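Moderator note: this is an archived Q&A kept for reference. The question asked for a predicted structure of one protein chain; the sequence and the answer are reproduced below.
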Amino acid sequence: MNQGGGRVRILQFAGIGLAAVIAAFGAQAQNYPDRPLRLVVPQPAGGGYDLVGRIAADKLTQLLGQSVIVENKTGAGTRAGTDFVAKAPADGYTLLVGASPNIVFNPALYKDLPHNTEKDFTPVGLFVEFTYTLVTRNDLPQKNLPDLIAFAKANPDKVTYASGGLGTGQHIAMAVLSNLAGIKTVHVPYRGAQQAYQDVIAGRVDLFFDNVTTARPLVDGGQVRAIATSASKRVPVHPDIPTVRETGVANFVLETWFGIFVHSATPKPIFERLRGEMAKIAVMPDVVDRFAKMGATPIHPSVEETGRMVHDDIILWKKLLQDAGVEG
């Protein structure tokens, strides 16, 4: 009897403990957020990550009633900022701008990655998709992509291309295209798009496969020349520029998504709050209009669709990067 009574008391205490945990989570969610949040951008100011991060931070600040402070944590491509969030407390106060490069490409590029993107991060919401524009220095003799590919085949390692760093979408786009087109090009990495453009504009580097948003003003301003996009169809802001696939040089498409991620151990009530707010932001008319003018496509997949997109892209790009022999 005493043993049975002991078991009953243990179960009672366990029930009380579980109830206390549930109550604590409920109170935590009700009070959330009670202090400013940080949104980590793993790239320098001025690029696609930064643009998305600042739009999201501005809208989240309005919806949450707390400041959402953008922090550009750069270094090691996109790994330093991404790993910072992986090691931060899973309390919903440290968010990450996640995109194909840091969430999808990095696991394939780096065998010693200190975090596991599928296990350590959960997407709060993907809300925009960008393509890439292949730009050249203005004095490059080759005026279109087929002519450039023909020159590169006849002159291995003579064509140079810039990127915002190892493992960035800019790096991956040109590396995979080079492999699919059967050419050898030389990668020149920089610490962000702004530094890369300085040398492309000055004529010291031949190519830059950059995010359409940051490429567009320089193309429109005549500082660089656009010869192709990585989209599946022509981009409205570059209606006269063919897609890579359209030129016939390779069956290549890269449309990278951006969104907000949190640590996967974030309490569910807090995650659901963030998820709900991000879903509102994704369909705000001013956000949709702003992204459209940048050449981006607003998206708002469900939780299930988001998880599937991330998982499928990790598998697809792991193979493409292995085939191209690209490593970090």
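Archived answer notes: The domain at 37-130+256-324 is CATH 3.40.190.150 (D-Maltodextrin-Binding Protein; domain 2).
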